[in-house]
User: Fold this.
Amino acid sequence: MTASETSHTTSTPAPAAHCRPAGIWQLAFCSLGIVFGDIGTSPLYTLKECLHVASTHGETFDRVDLFGILSLMFWALILVVTVKYVMFVMRADHNGEGGILALLSLVPERYRTGPGGIGGVSGMTLLAVIGAALLYGDGVITPAISVLSAVEGLAVASPALKDGVVPITCLILLALFSIQQAGTGIVGRLFGPIMLVWFLTLAGLGANQLVREPTVLAAMSPWYGVEFFLRHGFRGLLILGSVVLVVTGGEALYADMGHFGLKPIRKAWIWLVLPSLVLAYFGQGALLLRDPAAAANPFYAMVPAGPATYALVILASLATVIASQALISGAFSLTRQAMLLGFLPRVTIRHTAYDNEGQIYIPEVNVLLGVGCLALVLTFRESVKLAAAYGLAVTGTMVVTSILYYLVIRHTWGWSRWASLGTLALFLGVDIPFLLANMFKFFDGGYVPMLIGAALIAAMLIWSHGRTAVMAQYSGQYGPFETEWPQLRKSIVSRVPGSAVFLADSRAHTPPVLVHYVERSRSLHETVVLLQVIDDPQPEIIAGPRYTVERLVDGFYFVAVRFGYMEQPLLVPFLRQVAAAEKIPLDPDTATFFIGHSEITPQDGGRLELIPEAIFAYLKRNAVREEKRYGMPADQVMEIGEQISL
Assistant:
């Protein structure tokens, strides 16, 4: 019998209302509440922290020193966020997604798979894994310290709330993580207006002070920043560890790019966020020139005591709570990228926007982040004890991003050697001093994101190595159906009435679960469907065939189906339509769905050591199973288990 192939389209057009993409300015507005919360609330504490570090180390500051700090802060915003990320790095997207793992996917294959790494992972891939894991660590700390500092601000306005700081913080965190399931688009529309008011307030307060003391604008000259280091030497590096708070959240702009796109984020930054931040910082500087006593809290000193202070505390509290959203959304994007690249097991991904594939919600990550944040709040109980943890993880990620970006522009985009090296030197010339300055924070709290990152690095490398080992073990066992079926047919005693569905990874390999079932039962159903499910990068399948059917020999059919990211990949109704349209003797309501499950039994002497193999087995057991993802009826699923050792 000669196999023949036919295709049939079963999709229906998407509703016109859903097909209209959001405008750039609308997305830019929504991005205010998602992307810019972290970096947008840095005026609350950055200059204050710089002055605190200076006083701790016995430095006396004059007008020139204040200009030096403001100059460093201004040029950090320009060079790190505006030039590096907004103008350069964010151009490197992978199917619209940003972040360090998306950047890795653009690096040439020879650098991603070459020697020099650990456990079969190349040096460049290892760097990307480290950077991503560190960003996760920062993602756990940011919501905890942001919400905790916000509630502490309320306690300043009303001392009676001091004993309730930790309980109120925990309640706010629970509410924050509970609304994530609504999707970043809805959360952005909810938080966007608040952040718009916040940035306009920053601009207004800063402009009001600048009008009274415009001479502070001279600090925009880079010479004051250079002179600061010439005057203070090594101690100037310690101040740089606090200056980095200006750009904390810059990496989140790139990680969150898939939620809104490059153009909306770029417009929001250039036209609103950057001007507001610059006005706020220089406004505080202008105030300090007129009233040095305001150094205790220069931000709140920009408004007169009384009702204005209470109103600003409330607004700042709301903005600081929202600041945690950037890294929560970034963690969702990073998790999806890590899963697609084979560094994490499958998780539940819920797409929350029809016109933007990047807007997602991952319940497992949301729960882990929420639990981690609550644990940090209950352990440290004061934001000042967590403040030292800020910056170390994200500056490490910034260095890794610069190195990977160099490989992309030099070897993927074909830039000249001198242009590529010049760009790398410019980026590392800023990143490395920030990283070195933050190294001094390690024992003061910087170890927290580093420990979280180390655990995630180990998990990602173990999963990648274990997954590769499993695939290598299976790929050498079973070839195409045409090769395997003649041997399997000899083992079959009878073909029983009914139909069976076996999930297949590809047409090139026979599903292992089919081979195991035939070898053990020596029987097979009269109708057998080998089903491949393909995830398509569009919301719904409205163009081209949704599925193809290949009629094989002896009652076998190979069916490949595509599902868009906004569609529920429910197999029973789909197979019901296919069976009727293609005249396949298949009844999905009575068919048996066969699921293969490999039980990892750790043993010495394999591809993995005993402990890593045990960790891989645990991760595999807790990955999302096919029957749950594809909505298979529980009473129609038969799981075939196999014990293997790597």
Q: What stands out?
A: The chain has two domains: 22-466, 479-644. The chain has a mean pLDDT of 80.
